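Box S1 | Example of a co-folding query
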Amino acid sequence: MIGIFDSGIGGSTILKEIINILPNYKYIYYSDSKNNPYGNKENQTLYSIVKNIVEYLINRGCMAIVIACNTASTKCVKRLRQEYPQILFIATEPAYKMVYDFNFNGKTLVLATKGTIESEKFLALYHKYDNHKTILKSCVGLAELIEEDQQEAIDRYLHENLSEYKDIENVVLGCTHYPLIKDHIKKVLGNVNFFDGSVGVAKELKRKLDERQILGGHSLSVEFIDSSSEEKRKRFEKILGLKTI
Ligand code: DGL
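Box S1 (continued) | Returned holo structure for D-glutamic acid
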């Protein structure tokens, strides 16, 4: 059994890629919408929230846990690996290295939560691959609007916060909620190249499962749990294109 969690349904963008390359596993997705947003929580508060979810998933028999959230990954994964050495943790980080690999000369906008942008882990990544044409933008409040599916408010938010950026070629979607609003972003920034970490996370999970010989061999199932409302299920199923249990 593989566990996966986020502060809501944003991590579905990661799970979708995981299922593409690892269809023979059983998954439990924990959507912690009650505690959304994670993006501006204190480190210790966030760690306690995440620890509870991790313990729940371990008690349910998960040997591998995907942190489908950039904020929780950057702030908690090191401590989780120390505290639960028997569990395989796969973390998510903004796909800034992809810009270095694929379009180094392009003017780049990295969008993420405040927690991610200000984290040591992200800043180390940024300094390593800096193309000197990059703007870092914390989008306080955006993940909540996406979680609540407030389409018009999302458009307004992007218009107010991104219109000043001209000639952007690359946009790094550094929060797992943001791939859900690519079309909205295009309305403001035009036809940009998007980079997100979902395929990288899925490949890393596959590599590590193979290495540890945590085998699949099951028919695919996805159990969906949301900490605040059962209504999220329909939207989650629509994004994934499958029925959950
Ligand atoms: N989806 C999360 C991320 O990747 C967090 C959004 C939030 O709760 O602030 O950072």
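Residues 95 and 197 are 5 Å apart (CA to CA). The chain has two domains: 2-92+198-240, 96-195.
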